[in-house]
Design brief:
The chain is of the alpha/beta class and 294 residues long. It is built from eight helices and ten strands.
Length: 294
């Protein structure tokens, strides 16, 4: 990578860090901590019994030695692992609202990664298309997160189509202990529901679906040459044709409804975000709802 290009890489990642830092400090850092509890409780210390303490926590051995009543104090075993599965397929290059889907996905990944780091969790990354493009093992720290973001922004994938199942299989193999797993994708794929059920049983699994308004509603602007971002196929669509537009919109709405129904039956958490709106409100709402379920 040329020196000028390298400087541009660091500049863009730095801007993203600055943009997400305030969100993490003021909103998502605490929400993330509350939504994803640690693996359990571990012993911290003993202290003298105080009125109102749970008598079941009394340490009778220590109390006998010190001739007073002492209780065991436990604290949350906080350290966890966050694994981000980032969909780098060709459809991420679409965007009608001044932002590509892949850029929105990258910013969400940054918010998640910095939230995890703020809570001293490890963060790992899987970049995938129809193959596993890159895997970065979970580690702690800001420097590590910046490396992940550089990969997300500037990695050049070999594949263009999507295979979500292969990413879920890979994550299941490499994660030996229970982890938090976020799939960040537009879900332009089928046949992955059974794999979702499996990973959801083993890990704390969440899907963030990236959408764009024009994927569900075509403008009436005449003849349009459209291209499938993943297959490269070109075709001409007459958007003045009201029947065509309605048929397209009905088909896309039904596809989305079917996918939503399948995921709900699988009891998987799904957060839908759009290039046409801020992701802050839906993501914050998810964290808050998740906390209430704990």
């Amino acid at each position: 990578m040329a020196e000028t290009q390298l400087k541009d890489v660091f500049k863009k990642v730095r801007q993203l860090e600055i943009r997400t830092r305030g969100l993490v400090n003021n909103i998502f850092g605490g929400e993330y901590h509350s939504a994803f509890k640690g693996k359990g409780m571990e012993f911290a210390e003993v202290r003298e019994y105080q009125f109102g303490d749970d008598v079941r926590a009394i340490d009778w051995n220590v109390s006998a030695r010190r001739d007073d009543v002492f209780i065991k104090v436990f604290e949350e075993e906080r350290e966890q692992t966050l694994m981000i599965l980032y969909d780098a397929s060709g459809s991420g290059g679409f965007g009608s609202e001044g932002q590509f889907k892949r850029d929105l996905a990258a910013e969400i990944c940054a918010t998640l990664a910095f939230s995890a780091t703020k809570n001293n969790d490890k963060v790992g990354l899987v970049i995938f298309t129809d193959v596993i493009e890159k895997f970065i093992a979970p580690r702690k720290g800001r420097t590590h997160v910046l490396r992940l973001l550089r990969e997300i922004f500037f990695f050049k994938p070999k594949g263009r189509t999507t295979n979500i199942g292969i990413a879920l299989d890979f994550a299941t193999r490499v994660l030996k202990r229970r982890a938090i797993v976020f799939l960040v994708s537009d879900l332009m794929d089928g046949g992955f529901i059974e794999k979702v059920k499996l990973i959801n049983k083993k890990h704390d699994f969440v899907i963030i679906q990236i959408t764009d308004p024009r994927e569900f509603e075509l403008p009436s602007v005449g003849l349009l040459e459209l291209q499938d971002a993943e297959t490269g196929e070109h075709f001409i669509a007459d958007t003045f044709d009201e029947a065509f537009r309605k048929n397209y919109e009905a088909r896309m709405s039904q596809l989305q409804a079917n996918r939503k129904s399948q995921l709900q039956k699988s009891q998987v958490d799904v957060v839908s975000v759009s290039t046409g709106r801020s992701y802050i409100k839906p993501l914050a709402a998810f964290f808050q709802q998740r906390e209430l379920r704990q």
